[in-house]
Amino acid sequence: MRARPRSSPGSGKLDNQVALITGATRGIGLAIAHALAAESCDLILTARDAPALDRVGRELASAKIGILAHPCDVRDPHSVDALFRAARQQFRRLDILINNAGIAHPNHPVEKLPFPLWKDVLETNLTGTFLVTQAALAIMKRGGTIVNNLSIAATRVFPGSAAYSASKHGVLGLTNTLRQELRPRGIRVIALLAGATNTDIWNTFWPQAPRRKMMSPETVAEAVVQAILLPANATVETLEILPTLGTL
After folding, report:
1. CATH number at residue 224
2. What is the total count of domains within the chain?
3. Which residue range is the domain that position 74 belongs to?
4. Is residue 11 part of a domain?
């Protein structure tokens, strides 16, 4: 889906900027899309669910920003290539990358964790972040920002979540390496470590989790946008945001 280009300049602080968000149809990804749209940022939205992408594109069309909603499976290099061909055709550049796409798995001890489940989680959360970032760097210039949504599982371990924890620890290593490599290019790299947030992922992890103690996706999105809006000569390297009510 391509929305009509906006008819008048936006009033937000990210006017004329272009952001790509993976996993943009729900949860934190969707909340970040709305928060960036409120700052007049043009958006490239992607997820595997094409009908959901169309719905989100229609929701955001009223913001009068440029929108490209293009399905993509971040595990598949050919799908990622197709996404970036479409992105270059419409926008020709990228200023902000939000690597948000990710999946979880039901709790299993390592000895009972099915290999196909392990493989799917690692390919989505870790390999997907690598493939999208590698493609993005070809069109991202000095002053760009990459935000990798890791969750606090990147620094802590939770029994029964071996594949999810391993994937997030891996993305943290990738994120820290990227930051060092991209400093000379003036591209900021932010590790987002959000605590318990009220999203659909809990239906997989822990369906009975106490949602009332969690943060909203909008709270996390607000913190992300504020980090992006810092002056070019400043950065947040690790953005850890937790519920004030503590652990679940």
Report:
1. 3.40.50.720
2. 1
3. 18-241
4. no
Exposure string over 109-118, b if 16+ CB within 10 A, otherwise e: eeeebeeebb
Q: How confident is the model at residue 207 (pLDDT cuts 50, 70, 90)?
A: confident
Distance CA 197, CA 206 (A): 12
| Structure token pair of residue 170 | 């891996």
CA 44 to CA 94: how far, in whole Å? 9
Which token pair is 73? 């499976």
Residue 5 reports pLDDT greater than 90: no
pLDDT digits 0-9 by tens, 47-100: 999 999 999 999 998 888 999 999 999 999 999 999 999 999 999 999 999 999
1 in a structural domain: no
Whole-number Å distance between alpha carbons of 45 and 181: 26
B/e letters for 198-216, b = 16+ CB within 10 Å, e = fewer, are bbebbeebbeeeeeeebbe
Query: How many whole angstroms separate alpha carbon 244 and alpha carbon 195?
Result: 10
**Residue 87 tokens, joined:** 């992105």
Q: Annotated catalytic sites, by residue?
A: 164
